[in-house]
TrEMBL record:
DNA-binding interval(s): 129-228
Residue numbers of 4-aspartylphosphate PTMs: 54
UniProt xrefs under InterPro entries: CheY-like_superfamily, OmpR/PhoB-type_DNA-bd, Sig_transdc_resp-reg_C-effctor, Sig_transdc_resp-reg_receiver, WalR-like, WH-like_DNA-bd_sf
Protein name as it appears in the record: Two-component system response regulator CreB
Pfam family, one: Trans_reg_C
Domain Response regulatory: 5-119
Lineage of the organism: Bacteria, Pseudomonadati, Pseudomonadota, Gammaproteobacteria, Enterobacterales
Record organism: Lelliottia aquatilis
Signal peptide range: none
Domain OmpR/PhoB-type: 129-228
PROSITE patterns according to UniProt: OMPR_PHOB, RESPONSE_REGULATORY
Keywords of this entry: DNA-binding, Phosphoprotein
Length: 229
């Protein structure tokens, strides 16, 4: 069985060596980079199962590295490492499409556990199921594709998972915390703005296809629901 390939972009040698050892012991193949730009170059030839990115890299911001990697590989799972635990930084990382965020100092075993959780969640989200039609939507889970009014939506991974969650329970009102748990996972901290930002981008993409229909409803103080308009 092939080992999942993890990319580690970390310029602090002691941290990198510890994580490489722990990840290897956990059954992962690890490719390490001390800079971000070489990782971007390698991304043209190879796609890892998951990327662990230090935010404070010497040549390029970890956030910018994440943005460019996700441009090349939109479904790539990303875990941030940072010396800062500021909520704004964490929120920025999550809104960019990162899966998790660990502040230094951290336990290497915790990082390994989070990597496994992210990969397990990715595997579950791609399990095959029948293509279903829900109102003006068509949900194709095996292809991670949703059509709206006959047009395919170009969605990020989290936009897809968020809209899929709403589609599986039309009319149900989901709180922001419930959506965080279902889409970003139980290990992630809840930030209301993360859900709100993704709902905003989803609405914009739906309006671009059909400006006359607004299927996602806001319930003030409660959360969001999807109606079959």
């Amino acid at each position: 069985m092939q080992q999942p390939l993890i990319w580690l972009v970390e310029d602090e040698i002691s941290i990198a060596e510890t994580l490489i050892y722990m990840l290897s012991q956990e059954g992962f193949a690890v490719k390490a980079f001390e800079r971000g730009l070489p990782a971007l170059e390698e991304a043209r030839r190879q796609t890892p199962a998951l990327a662990i990115l230090d935010v404070g890299l010497p040549d390029i911001s970890g956030f910018e590295l994440c943005r460019q990697l996700l441009t090349q590989h939109p479904s790539l799972p990303v875990l941030f490492l940072t010396a800062r635990s500021d909520e704004v930084d964490k929120l920025l990382g999550l809104e960019m499409g990162a899966d998790d965020y660990v502040a230094k100092p951290f336990s290497p075993r915790e990082v390994c556990a989070r990597v496994r959780t992210i990969l397990r969640r990715m595997q579950k989200s791609t399990l095959p199921s029948a293509i279903v039609r829900i109102g003006h939507f068509e949900l194709n889970e095996p292809a991670a594709q949703i059509n709206w009014c006959g047009e395919p939506l170009i969605l990020t991974r989290y936009e897809f998972l968020l809209l899929k969650t709403l589609l599986h329970a039309p009319g149900r009102v989901f709180s922001r915390q419930q959506l965080m748990d279902k889409v970003w996972g139980e290990d992630g901290d809840s930030f209301d703005r993360t859900v709100d930002t993704h709902i905003k981008t989803l609405r914009a993409k739906l309006r671009a296809v059909n400006a006359d229909l607004s299927p996602i409803s806001t319930h003030r103080g409660l959360g969001y629901s999807l109606g079959l308009v």
